[in-house]
Amino acid sequence: MERKQELRRQLKVVRDAIPKEVRCEKSRQISERLVNTSWYRNTPNILAYSAIQSEVDLSVFCEKAWADGKRLYFPKVLGKEMEFYRIDSWHALCPGALSVKEPDIEHLVLEKYEEQPDSVMLVPGVAFSKEGYRIGYGAGFYDKYLAKHPSIYTIGVCFSEQVVVEIQPEIHDYCMRELVTERESRWKRI
Q1: Computed from CA positions of residues 115, 155, 61, 16, in that sequence, does the dihedral angle turn out positive or negative?
Q2: Three-state DSSP class for 60?
Q3: DSSP state for residue 54 in the 8-state scheme
Q4: What confidence tier does 16 reach under pLDDT thresholds 50, 70, 90?
Q5: Residue 183: how many other CB atoms lie within 10 Å
């Protein structure tokens, strides 16, 4: 646990040190890589996120997905749980828990995600191992959600600087099926 916390601290510093213009370009490259995949062409439902701090910004990807008629769902923290709601534009987001922009379910009627075949989740993180294990911010929202929805195809998205050789997973840690950076895509062999 201490090793995980230290790795989280170190890699947040590394990610934050990437100049903003470089992060923007890398985010654009990641978005292009995501759009040019077979799963993108065949997947109607995508669970995405609104970037915070120095995370990979999926704005370019989301704009393209909306233009292509994809259904995008974004996370909303509800107490100790997280749910996803469909939005059709950035205007449906408002400041929420932990300074994250979330679906505005208090003022808008939004469709809650119900498990569907052919759904893909793009998962942010502080660090990812080459095997697909992830270190998030420590609250466990994604791990808890994925434990309830194991059929969702998960793709970790991060900058190449965030990929580490190994993360010692804990019993509740969920492994990504794929990892995408600006340089490469990695699939977990099952």
Answers
A1: positive
A2: helix
A3: T
A4: very high
A5: 12
Residue type, 154: T
pLDDT in tens, 136-160: 887 889 999 999 998 999 999 999 9
Contacts of 171 (CB under 8 A, 6+ apart): none
Cβ pair 67, 44 in contact under 8 A: no
Pair 167, 4: CB distance under 8 Å = yes
Count CB-CB contacts under 10 A for residue 35.
Answer: 14
Instruction: Tell me the C-alpha distance between 128 and 109, whole Å.
Output: 35
Rounded CA gap, 82 and 66, in Å?
23
Q: How much is the pLDDT for 49? A: 97
Between the two ends of the chain, the Cα-to-Cα distance in Å is 26
**CB contact at 8 A, 53 and 134:** no
Cα 43 from Cα 21, distance rounded (Å):
30
Phi, psi of 105 (to 5 degrees): -75, -10
DSSP 8-state secondary structure symbol assigned to residue 105? T
Please identify which residue in the block is written with the tokens 């970037």.
Answer: 51
Residues whose CB is less than 8 angstroms from the CB of residue 11 and which lie 6 or more positions away in sequence, other chains included = 126, 127, 135, 161, 162, 164
Q: What is the pTM of this model?
A: 0.93
